[in-house]
Amino acid sequence: MFDSHAHYEDERFDTDRSELLDNLFRTGITGIINCGSDEQTSLHSLELSERYENIYFTAGVHPENSPLCGNFEDWLEPMLSHPKCVGIGEIGLDYHYDTPKECQRDVLVRQLEIADKLNKRVVIHNRESHRDLLDIVSLYPGVRGIFHSFSGSAEYAEILVKKGWYISFSGVITFKNAEKPVRVAAVVPTDKILCETDCPYLTPHPHRGLRNHSGYLEFTIKKLAEIKGIAFEEMENITTDNAKTLFGIK
Ligand SMILES: [Zn+2]
């Protein structure tokens, strides 16, 4: 199983990070992309990728961190040339809290400019900002990546897929009230589906409430396989291959 979006730098892993990761790589996890949210977490993600053969990372500024990021290009661009860096992320828009929208859009655009210039994949975070985000990414038709833990409608997913974007599903799809993500998974073609934990967040049913980790990815893959009417192993292989193809991992 390949976890296309995780946060193992999070302090909730401080007490057992090495044992947990060693165990995950012994028991069926073949790859993890650890995503940064600012300079500190991007650097921590880079360090994890140097310690573990099967951890890759993305570096970037999360929309919630936009107001404090200053001249982030100074640290971001050098990090992107690291051999284990597979993209810029997570970046995007988040209109749930009151982080100034103008500032979020400015930081997102500057990162999309870099992705376009350096031909880097992007990991998009989108919360209650569907329309603005679609308008902005549409200005960069050459930039590709994933909408992570997808929260939009089936119609929105279809528009993105037509433009070449991949859709990543998290444990949310296993929740009892997950009608919308189930409808989305039904319309997204299998060659555009990725799966992720976003751990330590978004723990799938039946472990909701506990700290999430890549081992719980099986519940998300199982649900996706059910929706598509295929075997677990097939969905496991498809999501692994899609992640490797998109992020250029051998
Ligand atoms: Zn995340």
Structural description of this entry:
- The protein is of the alpha/beta class and 250 residues long.
- The chain has one domain: TIM Barrel (Alpha-Beta Barrel).
- The protein is 41% helix and 17% strand.
- It has an eight-stranded parallel beta sheet with strand order 1-2-3-4-5-6-7-8.
- α8 (217-228) packs across α9 (232-247).
- 46% of the residues are buried.
- The mean pLDDT is 97.
- It binds zinc ion.
- Zinc ion is lined by residues 5, 7, 35, 90, 198.
At a glance:
The chain has 250 residues and is α/β, with parallel strands linked by helices.
Fourth CATH level, the homologous superfamily: Metal-dependent hydrolases
Structural class, by secondary structure, is alpha/beta
> Topology as H/E string?
EHEHEHEHEHEHEHEHH
- What small molecules does this complex bind? zinc ion
CATH hierarchy: architecture: Alpha-Beta Barrel
What is the fold's blueprint, element by element?
Layout: E1 2-6, H1 17-26, E2 31-35, H2 39-51, E3 55-59, H3 73-80, E4 85-94, H4 101-118, E5 121-127, H5 130-137, E6 145-147, H6 154-162, E7 166-169, H7 179-187, E8 193-195, H8 217-228, H9 232-247
Parallel strand pairs: 1-2, 2-3, 3-4, 4-5, 5-6, 6-7, 7-8
Helix pairs in contact: 6-7, 8-9
Pick out its properties:
250 residues, alpha/beta, TIM Barrel, 8 strands, 41% helix, globular, binds zinc ion
